[in-house]
Each structure stands twice: as structure tokens, then as C-alpha cells.
User: Which sequence fits this backbone?
């Protein structure tokens, strides 16, 4: 494998990228947590509210390959700023659409359409920022340092998923009401955008910031390389299993809880928060404490996710579903930065933008179809989502324990 020395630069670059990841995660997950209530205020059907985020995820996944040569040519910093601009425009625009809907200037269907388009704007530009962030980390780190940096970004994302749903309802205060969270998150985005001019490296005109420049391999080309593609395939399947758990755990808790929606809703909140904390402990605690290699993170994480899902299948009580979800979340939290780091380290300097784009695509693609398939299966057999996720984790674990590691000269 060909390595390259990280370029000199400010020691604040990686911490700042973590802060940006944290702030955008607060906004995105915080918006998800308050949208059901906002949708009811606007008389938008629940399935359309869910469809807004599915469409955004689809836009994210489809647009990821588009940015590979552009980031290589223009440098990642420009596209990180572009993603933050998309975040601000999306949040502020959604606030405007909601206000027009509340004032009855727009009918519910038109409000939904505006909201969906504006979220898709972030799906388009956000995928560029995510790819650029991963590429910039790869350009500034190598070896174990890269593994720690990628785990740190994943931890920042997990922390944002904890903080976002906690503060979003508190931001729905008079006189802003439901507009409060969106306008507040837009302000977070503006602060992060201003910070890019202080903490990210300036790039001379015409000089790319990523090795390989605009002539690096495409997403498809890097995925076809066995040494890289194996880790990306692992990531796609693992993230699909996580999405199945994440998007069906609420239904499982509702159906396993004794009558009383408030109790069930509280249990859902506890499970989601505990799962995010478990992932954070894996990424910011265990990885640093044990200095785990990427492959060790992938194997241990898949085993823990398998065990968590088996627990939820084998025992029908609500406590088993929650405990299984938390254990699986710990495993996913360990494996996700593991496969990202493994894929990055398996590639040459020229392949880093293509690898980053593939990882970004995985993040969006995994939450489009798998949750829908699991939800349909759930209607026929209640443990089905846990069983499907467990089967995926078993296949991944068996593959990495039995099949020899592919070595390829770089």
C-alpha cells in the first residue's frame, strides 16, 4: 500500500471538522425528532413526513459519485463550505415553508412539496461536504492516526444524535413556535460556515488539496478493487442492518409495551438515547482505550450487533428489544468507523476521494430500501427485522473470520 505524509497545517483542522459534524448532526436528527409534530400541525400525512427524509437520503446517495472529480479539482474545503451553505438554506427555507403552511398561504400538499425539495437541496450538497470531509481527513492523517480521526468524526455524529432530539423540542418557544428549531439550526450552520474561514486551510488557486487531484479513480473504480471493495461491501451491509434496527425499533417497542402510549413513547426515547450513547462510548472510548485496528473493530462490532439482534429475536419482552438494540448499537458504533478506516487505508493517495464518495453513498443508500423491506416483513412476523439484521451480521462475521484477507500491492 502506498502511503503519503500528512501535509502540514493547523492543529485545529480535525477538531473543527468534528465540531461541524456534531452541529450538522444536531440539526438533522433534531429536525427528524420534531417533524412528526410539525407534520400534524400542517395536516400532512405521517407517511409523507417520513417520505421527506427518504427522498433526501436518496438524493444524498445518488449524488455522491458526482462529486469525486470536482472535489479532486477544487479541493475539499470549498465543498465543505458548500455543504454548510446547503444546510443553512435547507433549514431556513423549511422554516419559511412551514410558516407559509401555518398561515394557510400554502395548502398541505404544496407545503410538503416545498419541504421535500428544500431537504433534497441538503441531500445534494451535504453529500459533497461529507465526501470532502472524509477526503480532507485522509489527506491529513495516515495509519492509526487516521483510524482515530475517523472514529472521532463518527463519535461527533453519535453525540449529535443524542443532543439534537434533546434540544429541538426546547427550541419550539414563543414567538417562533415550530420555526424555532429550524431557525436555530440554520444559525448553527452559519456559525460553522464562518468557522471554516478560521480553521480550515486556505488553498492557493489552481492547487488541489487532495492528492491525485481531479484525475483520481472514480467511485466505481475504487469499489471494484478487491482490497477496497471488500470493506465497502461490508459497510453497505452493516449500515443496512443498522438502518433496519433504527427505523423499526419504535414499532417493536410499541407492540411489546403494555397499553399506554406515553409509557411506550418514553421507552422509545430511552432506547434511542441509550443506543446513541452506546455508539459514542464505542467510538470515543473503546477505540482509544484499546487502540483497536480497523479489522478488529469490524469483527467485534459485527459480533456484538449479531448478539444484540439475537437477543431481541429470542425474547419477546420489551426489555429484551431495548437491551438488544443498545448492544447492537454499540456494535454498529464500533464497526462503522472500522470499515471506513479500513477502506481508506487500503487505498492509495489518488483513490481517497473515490473512497470517501463511496462511504458517503453508503450512508444514504442504507436508509432508503432496507427499512422499507424490514417494515413489510414486520407485518408478517414481528421479530423479522431483528432476524434479518442478525443474518446480515452473521454473514459479515463469517466472511471476515473464514475468508482470507485480500492483500493487494498499491
Assistant:
Amino acid at each position: 500500500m502506498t502511503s503519503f505524509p500528512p501535509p502540514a497545517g493547523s492543529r485545529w483542522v480535525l477538531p473543527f471538522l468534528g465540531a461541524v459534524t456534531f452541529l450538522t448532526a444536531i440539526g438533522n436528527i433534531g429536525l427528524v425528532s420534531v417533524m412528526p409534530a410539525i407534520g400534524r400541525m400542517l395536516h400532512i400525512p405521517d407517511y409523507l413526513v417520513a417520505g421527506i427524509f427518504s427522498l433526501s437520503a436518496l438524493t444524498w446517495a445518488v449524488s455522491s459519485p458526482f462529486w469525486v472529480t470536482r472535489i479532486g479539482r477544487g479541493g475539499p474545503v470549498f465543498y465543505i463550505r458548500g455543504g454548510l451553505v446547503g444546510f443553512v438554506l435547507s433549514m431556513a427555507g423549511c422554516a419559511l415553508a412551514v410558516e407559509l403552511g401555518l398561515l394557510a398561504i400554502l395548502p398541505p400538499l404544496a407545503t410538503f412539496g416545498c419541504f421535500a425539495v428544500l431537504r433534497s437541496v441538503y441531500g445534494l450538497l451535504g453529500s459533497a461536504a461529507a465526501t470532502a470531509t472524509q477526503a480532507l481527513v485522509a489527506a491529513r492523517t495516515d495509519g492509526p492516526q487516521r483510524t482515530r480521526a475517523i472514529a472521532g468524526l463518527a463519535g461527533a455524529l453519535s453525540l449529535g444524535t443524542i443532543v439534537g432530539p434533546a434540544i429541538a423540542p426546547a427550541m419550539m418557544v414563543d414567538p417562533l413556535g415550530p420555526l424555532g428549531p429550524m431557525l436555530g439550526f440554520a444559525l448553527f450552520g452559519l456559525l460553522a460556515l464562518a468557522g471554516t474561514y478560521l480553521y480550515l486551510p486556505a488553498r492557493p488557486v489552481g492547487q488541489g488539496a487532495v492528492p491525485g487531484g481531479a484525475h483520481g479513480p472514480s467511485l466505481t473504480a475504487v469499489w471494484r478493487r478487491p482490497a477496497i471493495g471488500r470493506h465497502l461491501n461490508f459497510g453497505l451491509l452493516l449500515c443496512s442492518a443498522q438502518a433496519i434496527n433504527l427505523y423499526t425499533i419504535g414499532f417493536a417497542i410499541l407492540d411489546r409495551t403494555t397499553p399506554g402510549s406515553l409509557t411506550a413513547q418514553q421507552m422509545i426515547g430511552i432506547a434511542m438515547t441509550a443506543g446513541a450513547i452506546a455508539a459514542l462510548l464505542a467510538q470515543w472510548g473503546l477505540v482509544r482505550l484499546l487502540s483497536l485496528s480497523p479489522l478488529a473493530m469490524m469483527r467485534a462490532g459485527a459480533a456484538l450487533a449479531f448478539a444484540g439482534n439475537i437477543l431481541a429475536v429470542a425474547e419477546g419482552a420489551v426489555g429484551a428489544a431495548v437491551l438488544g438494540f443498545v448492544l447492537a448499537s454499540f456494535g454498529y458504533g464500533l464497526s462503522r468507523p472500522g470499515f471506513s478506516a479500513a477502506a481508506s487505508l487500503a487505498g492509495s493517495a489518488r483513490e481517497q476521494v473515490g473512497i470517501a464518495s463511496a462511504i458517503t453513498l453508503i450512508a444514504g443508500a442504507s436508509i432508503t430500501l432496507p427499512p422499507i423491506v424490514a417494515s413489510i416483513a414486520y407485518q408478517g412476523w414481528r421479530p423479522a427485522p431483528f432476524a434479518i439484521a442478525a443474518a446480515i451480521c452473521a454473514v459479515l462475521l463469517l466472511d471476515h473470520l473464514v475468508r482470507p484477507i485480500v492483500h493487494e500491492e498499491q
